[in-house]
Structures are given as C-alpha cells and as structure tokens.
C-alpha cells in the first residue's frame, strides 16, 4: 500500500482493519491480542457497545455548534469530572498536548493577573518528562530529542531530575508560576513518582505561590486503579490535564482546575474550535460511567497484579527483563543489561507473534491494555509474549 502521509511516523508492517475488545484483525485476517490499548487510549477496549450507542445517539442530535454556545453533553461530562475530583471547572480541547498547553498558558495568565510586574513566569518541569508535541509542550517536556530541531524554544522553562526532593526545593522560587509533574513518567520508561517528591512539590508551590500541575494524560481515567493517579496520595493539585482514555478513542482532552485559578481564563484569553464537541463529550460521558465504577477499578488492580506477576515469571525464566514496574494496568519491563536498548526489537517480534505492545524509550517494553482485560486475553497475551521472547533470545 502506498503511503500518502508525511514520514514522521514509522508505521508497523500490518494494516489494522477491525477490532473488538482486546482483539485486532489486520487486512490478511490475522488476529492480535492488544495489550497496547492505543497508547493507553482504548481504556474500554475496541468498539465497546455502550460507547457505540452513545456515539450513534448523539450523531442523530448534534455534531458541532461552535464555542459560542455550550452543549448538554459538554456540561454533563464536565459535571462528572467536577463531582469526582478536586476540580471546580473544566476546559475541553482535543488532545493531551492541548490540555497541557491550556494548563501552561493558564498558569502564566494566573501569575500575570495576581502578581503583575514581578516577572513570575517560570515553569519547573522534570527531565525526561513528556507533555505533548506543540512547541510549548515539547519545550516543557524534558527530552531534547523532541525539541532540539525546533529551536529557538519558548523561554522561562527549567528542568530538574524526577523524584529529586532537594532539586525541587532548590529550583522553585518567587519567579516560578508552576511546577508540572507526571504521576508516572510514561513515555520515558514508566517511572512512578514518589510521594515524597509530590509532597515536596506541593509545599514548594505553596511557599512561593505557584501552581501545581499534574499531567494525567496517560495515568488518568482509571489506568492505575483510581480515577486519577494522584488520588493515591494526600495531594491537591491546582490543575490536572487529561485526555487519552477520556474519550476511549474519540479525540478529546480536558484541563481540570479550581474556580480561583480558572477565572483567569477570561473571555477570549484561550479557546478551541472543536473543544467540547458534542460527539466526543457524549462518548466521554458513557466511558466515564463505565470506568468510574468499583467493578472496573477493581478489575484494573486485579488484572494489573496478574499481568505484573506473569511478566515477572517471564523475566525470571528468560533473563530478558531487569525489572517490572508501574501501577495498575500501566506497566513497563526494563530490558536487562544483556538486551540493553533492544525494546523496539522485542516489540516487533511480539507483533509477529500476534501481540500488540509498546515501548517507552529504547529500553522499556510498555503495556497499557484495556481496563476490562479478561483472564483469557491476558493469558493468551502472555503466551504470545513468551513465544516472542524465545525468538528474541536466539537472535
């Protein structure tokens, strides 16, 4: 098949045609077990019937009306997010990058509104963080490989080591408008935050009147066994970004915040043509009502433990992995020294054995399957990974 798209993606050598639950079929009829979840997007698997019903029902009512108006689906989804989180207000957009872009702009606008003429504008972020691919968000993300080609970059951004309490205490000052942290650094290796680091960030922000932003684009919406990962900690953020699983495959992002902070987004200060789209919000409501239940969240914890145990058993038997880490159904297998930097090679072999997985950096195999993952699909996936590992170690 001829590719008419720009060459910034290296597509896998298979063409997905249809999918259901944790199963995907290509144009040759081959079936795959999906433990990648569209990079943590397909939180309820593929083509969940209740989401299809929500989409079809809304499709017969209203698709788009512009942000001159609000809509009932947008208000319904925002109400769900407010009632079950710290937030009091929600801004809708189309992606995680846009949600983070809104968060960073709001932080600077809030600082300008409340501390005029003080130069309070600096954002403190973490080395190896990932917050999106817009120029602002790729600059805040602490990975030069994603930003170097687009210099000069926006100024006023500093990076510190992840989980370094002393570093955050030293970095935050009266010029800081915000600190941004991922509860689990997903793209750089599935690295969980420590409670001490989060608490230090909260104290530093309070001390210097800065905002604490938590990027939950990948960890939000049940991925770790709670609606949002920061709910495991005694921490109250000022802003949280969400996307990916929020629409379970329909593009939607959200920035959650308090009323005190959100009021800095005055009319005309920020916007999104498609943000709060009725189709996306209707699906988001249906997804929320399935995800935010004890049954789904317990399944995440239960299946996450089973998957982790299965991966550890494969590690012990093969010596391919040095560590299995993560939380809930966001797990990463760190390649051992003998296989350092070869995670992508193992991912390709897994594909050849009928299994969809991910990488995080060049040294971690990443798993982000459906939150509704069944025992049967989990075991089949592990069996296929075992076969891929057997081929991998004999290369």
Automatic annotation (TrEMBL):
One of its GO terms (molecular function) is N2-acetyl-L-ornithine:2-oxoglutarate 5-aminotransferase activity. CDD domains: OAT_like. Keywords: Amino-acid biosynthesis, Aminotransferase, Arginine biosynthesis, Cytoplasm, Pyridoxal phosphate, Transferase. N(2)-acetyl-L-ornithine binds at residues 133, 272. It is found in: Cytoplasm. May also have succinyldiaminopimelate aminotransferase activity, thus carrying out the corresponding step in lysine biosynthesis. PANTHER family: AMINOTRANSFERASE CLASS III (PTHR11986), SUCCINYLORNITHINE TRANSAMINASE (PTHR11986:SF113). Its cofactor is pyridoxal 5'-phosphate. Coiled coil: none annotated. This is Acetylornithine aminotransferase. GO terms for biological process: L-arginine biosynthetic process. It catalyses: N(2)-acetyl-L-ornithine + 2-oxoglutarate = N-acetyl-L-glutamate 5-semialdehyde + L-glutamate. InterPro entries: AcOrn/SuccOrn_fam, Aminotrans_3, Aminotrans_3_PPA_site, Class-III_PLP-dep_AT, PyrdxlP-dep_Trfase, PyrdxlP-dep_Trfase_major, PyrdxlP-dep_Trfase_small. It comes from the Bacteria. It holds the Pfam family Aminotran_3. Pyridoxal 5'-phosphate binds at residues 96-97, 130, 215-218, 273. Homodimer. NCBIfam families: argD, PRK01278.1, PRK05093.1. GO terms for cellular component: cytoplasm. The modification N6-(pyridoxal phosphate)lysine is found at residue 244. Pathway: Amine and polyamine biosynthesis; ectoine biosynthesis; L-ectoine from L-aspartate 4-semialdehyde: step 1/3; Amino-acid biosynthesis; L-arginine biosynthesis; N(2)-acetyl-L-ornithine from L-glutamate: step 4/4. Binds 1 pyridoxal phosphate per subunit.
């Amino acid at each position: 098949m001829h590719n008419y798209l720009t060459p910034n993606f290296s597509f896998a050598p298979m063409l997905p045609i249809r999918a259901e639950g944790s199963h995907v079929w290509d144009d040759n009829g081959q079936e795959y077990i999906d433990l990648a979840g569209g990079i943590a997007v397909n939180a309820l698997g593929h083509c969940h019937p209740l989401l299809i019903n929500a989409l079809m029902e809304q499709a017969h009512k209203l698709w788009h009306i512009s942000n001159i108006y609000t809509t009932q689906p947008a208000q319904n989804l925002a109400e769900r997010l407010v009632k079950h989180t710290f937030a009091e207000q929600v801004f809708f957009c189309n992606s995680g990058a846009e949600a983070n872009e809104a968060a960073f702009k709001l932080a600077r606008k809030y600082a300008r509104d409340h501390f005029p003429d003080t130069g309070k504008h600096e954002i403190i972020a973490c080395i190896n963080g990932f917050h999106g691919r817009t120029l602002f968000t790729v600059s805040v993300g602490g990975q030069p490989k994603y930003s170097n080609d687009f210099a000069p970059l926006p100024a006023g951004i500093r990076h510190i080591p992840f989980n370094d309490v002393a570093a955050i205490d030293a970095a935050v000052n009266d010029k800081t408008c915000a600190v941004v942290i991922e509860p689990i650094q997903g793209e750089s290796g599935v690295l969980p935050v420590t409670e001490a680091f989060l608490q230090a960030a909260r104290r530093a922000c309070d001390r210097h009147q800065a905002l604490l932003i938590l990027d939950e684009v990948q960890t939000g919406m049940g991925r770790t066994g709670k609606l949002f990962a920061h709910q495991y900690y005694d921490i109250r953020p000022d802003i949280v970004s969400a996307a990916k699983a929020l629409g379970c495959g329909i593009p939607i992002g959200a920035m959650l915040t308090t009323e005190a902070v959100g009021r800095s987004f005055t009319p005309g200060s920020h916007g999104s043509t498609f943000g709060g789209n009725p189709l996306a919000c209707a699906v988001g409501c249906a997804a929320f009502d399935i995800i935010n239940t004890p049954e789904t969240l317990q399944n995440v914890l239960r299946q996450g433990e089973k998957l982790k145990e299965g991966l550890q058993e494969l590690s012990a038997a093969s010596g391919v992995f040095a560590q299995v880490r993560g939380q809930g159904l966001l797990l990463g297998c760190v390649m051992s020294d003998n296989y350092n930097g070869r995670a992508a090679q193992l991912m390709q072999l897994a594909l050849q054995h009928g299994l969809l997985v991910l990488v995080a950096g060049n040294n971690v195999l990443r798993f982000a399957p459906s939150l509704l993952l069944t025992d049967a699909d989990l075991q089949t996936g592990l069996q296929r990974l075992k076969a891929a590992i057997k081929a991998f170690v004999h290369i």
